[in-house]
Amino acid sequence: MTPAEIEALLDGPATALAAAVNAGAVPASELVERALERAARERERLGAFLALTPETARRQARDVARRVAAGEVLPLAGVPLAVKDNINVAGEPSTAGSRILAGFVSPDDATCVARLVAAGCVVVGKANCDEFGMGSSNENSAYGPVRNPWDLSRVPGGSSGGSAAAVASSAAALAIGTDTGGSVRQPAALCGLVGWKPTYGRVSRYGLIAYASSLDQAGALARSVRDAAVAFSVMAGGDERDSTSLSSRVPDVLTGLEVGCEGKRIGVLVEAGAEAGGLHEDVKASFEAAARLFSAKGATVVPISVPRVPLAIPVYYLVATAEASANLARFDGVRYGARVDAPELSSLYRKTRSQGFGAEVKRRILLGTFALSSGYMDAWYGRSMKVRALLSRDFAAAFREVDAILCPTSPEPAFRLGEKTGDPLSMYLADVFTVPASLAGLPAISVPAGFSKEGLPIGMQLIGPHDEEPLLFSLARVLEAGTHASERRPPAP
Ligand code: GLN
Predict the structure, then answer these.
(1) pLDDT tens, residue by residue, 384-418
(2) What angle do CA 407, 159, 271 make, to 5 degrees?
(3) Which residues pair with 178 in a beta bridge?
(4) Are 401 and 263 in contact (CB under 8 A)?
(5) Residue 320 CA: which ligand 1 atom is closest?
(6) Pocket lining: 180 vs ligand 1, CB cutoff 6 Å
(7) Number of independent structural domains in the chain
(8) Any catalytic annotation for residue 183?
(9) Which of 147, 172, 332, 363 has its CA 20 to 30 A from that of 188?
(10) Whether 163 contacts 221, CB under 8 Å
(11) What is the dihedral of CA 263, 466, 159, 150, to 10 degrees?
């Protein structure tokens, strides 16, 4: 294979790259060197990586070469993978984008990482992210922002912004991120990628640095629906190290990937249309075009209401911050990462946490601690849990009418760096369409569906009932094939 052919493989789908490695057409050892060069470039140019992992990558590539030579066929043979920095990779740093974890080295692989590596992936680096996954623009990383490869003056979305930038710039062929309230889907939408979060529990949380445990899920970002579906089939499955993981049979997302949407009932989310004020006109146009496309391809498209969707933001920012205030208590300067020494234990805690956490993380710890404090707990946390249950009921009722729900992933295309940093509330509103599925534990996928007049990618989201990933991936394929939006790539570096 010529150097140009190798570069073309790295630009193309992960599945095509794996096929070439399995066929012996290109050595994994050669691919990994080219991929590491790209990752180094995008670490500089976009800030996509917090650390490169060349030794791990070369060792994994040697394993792949050995297994392929022995006749094994690996679904993701030699595929360069970016891992969000709040997901553990054995022997490599995990900072979760925070100063408080500076110097922490992961003792082992997260289960989802181990599964991807067993399927042939090669980890090229730890991707930049918002601190502990808290953010929608990657501007809350303690180590600097990430730039969107489509327009370097814009954010890639967050919190898995580095993962998205890495795959969109073809520094990696696949990335994993965590999605607590949209952190895989929203950056996927802003960077022109496919990104999914599974049914809660379908992918193990073992090895993820916890943000809000009842919401956190790992998901993948890819340049095609098929790549994303292969990643799902590899990552999904029960795990005795995560008691909330599902041990039921993993739904098969590959066999029916091309079945189309004929006879399916697709609900167009009424509350998204009603967002009129907040919905960018180009997003609105793509939303309407997507509905027309499904109907042209044989689906029955009807309006559907999930009445409590407008309450999802306040509920999410109470539930997530409450859980975060408890989860982040473990970062005390004693057990993990950075420590600011002090003569007494209490001042060691105070100094470490004051200097170690960034402003947004502190805001959320304070908000969450308040929501859980005695005298206020019933009014805030208790009430938000009730609304969360009602929202789930709304979805259940909607899914008696329709098979899946269509809405934009993000109310607007990528915004400019700095545009929302002064106003946390406007940043929180970026999650208006992604947090509802998270609160209800539902699977959801974002698919490139068009471009704004300025040439920025626009993503549409499909939300399904629990365990309906096969339906979501097949509907995503319809959008991908019908809009051709995934075929356009960002300007070359
Ligand atoms: N933007 C949301 C938040 O800041 C979602 C983050 C996430 O999914 N990790 O909480």
Answers:
(1) 999 999 999 999 999 999 999 999 999 999 999 99
(2) 20
(3) 218
(4) no
(5) 10
(6) yes
(7) 1
(8) yes
(9) 363
(10) yes
(11) -10
CA dist 162 and 183 (Å) reads 11
In a domain, residue 357? The reply is no
Domain hosting residue 113, numbered range: 3-235
- The CATH code of the domain that includes 31 is 3.90.1300.10
The model carries a pTM of 0.98
Q: Are strands 457-463 and 444-451 parallel, antiparallel or unpaired?
A: antiparallel
Residue 359 alpha carbon to ligand 1 centre in Å: 15
- 17 within some domain: yes
Instruction: Write the CA distances from 37 to 19, 53, 172, integer angstroms.
Output: 22, 12, 11
Please, are residues 32 and 61 in contact by the beta-carbon 8 Å criterion? yes
How far is the centre of ligand 1, averaged over its atoms, from the C-alpha of 153 (Å)? 22
213 prior amide bond cis, ω within 30: no
Q: Is 248 a catalytic residue?
A: no
Q: What is the pLDDT of residues 276-320, one digit of tens each?
A: 567 999 999 999 999 999 999 999 999 999 999 999 999 999 999
In a domain, 335, yes or no: no
Say if 256 falls within a structural domain. no
